[in-house]
Amino acid sequence: MHMRFSLPVLFLLSIGAHSSAQEKLKDLSLSDAITKAFSTYRPEHVDALQWIPGTDRYSFVQGDSLMSGGIGKAADRVLVDLARLNERITDEAPRLKRFPFITWETADRFTFEHNDAVQVFSIGDATLIRRLELDPEAERSDMDEVQHRVAFTLGEDLYMRAPSAKEAVRITSDGADGIVNGRSVHREEYGITKGTFWSPTGNKLAFYRMDESMVTPYLLEDISTRPSTFKKIRYPMAGQTSHQVKLGVYDVASDRTTFMRTGGAADSYLTNISWDPTGRYVFIFHLNRTTDTLRVVQYDAATGEALRTVIEETDRKWLEPQHTLRFLERTPSQFIYWSQQDGYMHLSLYDVNKGLVRQLTKGAWVVKNIIGSDAKGSAVFVEGTGMIDPKMPTGAMETHIYRVEIGSGKTTKLTHEPGTHHGQLGGDGRYLIDTWSSLSVPGRTEIIDATKGAVLKTLVDSKDPLAGMKVGTIEFTRVPGESGDLLNARLIKPRNFDSRQKYPVLIYVYNGPHVQLVTNSYLGGASLWMLHAAERGYIVFTVDGHGSENRGKDFEQVIHRQLGVTEVKDQLHGVDFLKGLPYVDADRIAVHGWSFGGHMTTAMLLRAPDAFKVGVAGGPVMDWGMYEVMYTERYMDTPAENPDGYTLTRNTDKTEALRDKLLVITGGMDDTVLPEHSYTFLKHCVDKGVQVDFFEYPGHGHNVRGKDRVHLYTKVLDYIDTALGLTE
The whole model's pTM is what? Predict the structure, then answer.
């Protein structure tokens, strides 16, 4: 591992496997690169590491034992082993084969799920009780941590079960084809990851009810049956009739549900559901369908009445709230709100009654996550990027931990080593577990103090798991992009790289919203299959262009109403950069991407056919008019409002421009980017007499997972090898 600098481009860091001449290096097979990426070739780490509540000790799993460790020189000790845990399981169902994932409730008690039940183990007296029965057919379970009830769905309806209850309570009974209760809605956009929300006291349950009966059904063929059958989904495309959502609140004591009287347009979005600390009020983010106006509204959970609009925000392009309100324990009328109104995602303190109190974080950096707060409630701890300078944008490639004082907004950076840091805050807010990596540090886990960030203890300092393998080097660079912005990029070279030779290039592309591929982390954010590809004889290149995340609102919103246009220009600037390198064969450049990257791959070949030799487009969006309403209209507006933008970015009617080899791949059951995208593109190719290659993975959804992923990347790389002449 070494640092390398060259002009005119600065290579910030480089990583590679270096072994003595006597050591025999091993090949990294494609199969191992895919199937062992998170096992054999994952840097050493502490398994199941978490703080034990109410203490300055932490727990982790080592072999078959749950261990605890402490600050400084405190010795590790065994809390309980798998054998003792299995001894306490009295029912007849199978015993545990490995130590389960646990959740601490107190310093002496943890829970885990086994044998269709929530089990509770007490360390002090080594007792195990079966607290809560779980329905084996249940979906989307959501546990209440206070009353220990569980909400879950069966089919399209919502149920709840309490400890010691013989039967579950059915909360809804109107679930049917087109009526869905208790599930995430709006196709899981805007931070929506579930459909149920327990109140802080555990006495009420808010839940989504989605009516999608007015949405045109879409059928996906399932060939696992004979004859084949069809799975029906509801998929509103851009500009089409969308679904309608309500929020209900179920009161456990009265066994009654009250729906919030939200009013407004029926197809507006209800997102980021938040409870206040008392459990009396629920807050809903109302986002209009055009996504340019947001209202945060407070509701009386008992009556459903709207009490006040707490925050109203507008943007001339789009808004996309991703985070719930975080109320302060010591001042329950105040909460932390996320917004990028000043150009970067930052935190502000609000009062329900008085409005804005103060902006807490500021500057050219992005807050990414709130870790927790200290015991006094005087500070919050966040993860965020480094400072972002357009002339030195590498701050966006890093993630650091910061302490933010609520009273003043004073922000202290607690992590000082370059890299990608993720923190876990101890219950009393005095210590942090910092797990991090960089291009030169495969992995390190440290205990740091939560005031200034001093390292108190190192738990793991991982060696490079690829040492002794035949892999090359990974380098960071910057590429001039559209409008003169510098773009972060990653370059992978083969192990026996010779600058006097000419190498073909494989560009891996995504370049869409909410994705960042180039990070100062282990392998620079690259996948292991890319290192394998480099050993086939490629330079593997990736650049994060405009629209990708963590560079601020202006950088992201350049793509408005022309999704994929500026992004393709950025990628072509990357091609120009590559052609300026003396060791690149400019006549042999390939491109591959999936989903948004599949759209980009196809668009790059259609708009700049002379720049490429071959492309592989997986799960590609070929026409934004056929993509789902919430994502597409956010960036593109509707087809009626922006016909020129939809025409400009449509791939299906531009097939005559295709001059290069192109393989299109889709999953037969893809309910995210429908197979219709690929089929429509193929039909246009046939109509225009354009040759194109196609492969479908029957039964797979939007991506190809499991063992079949080896098949996928064998096909991708073999196809590119053949087109670029790397195979005979």
Answer: 0.95
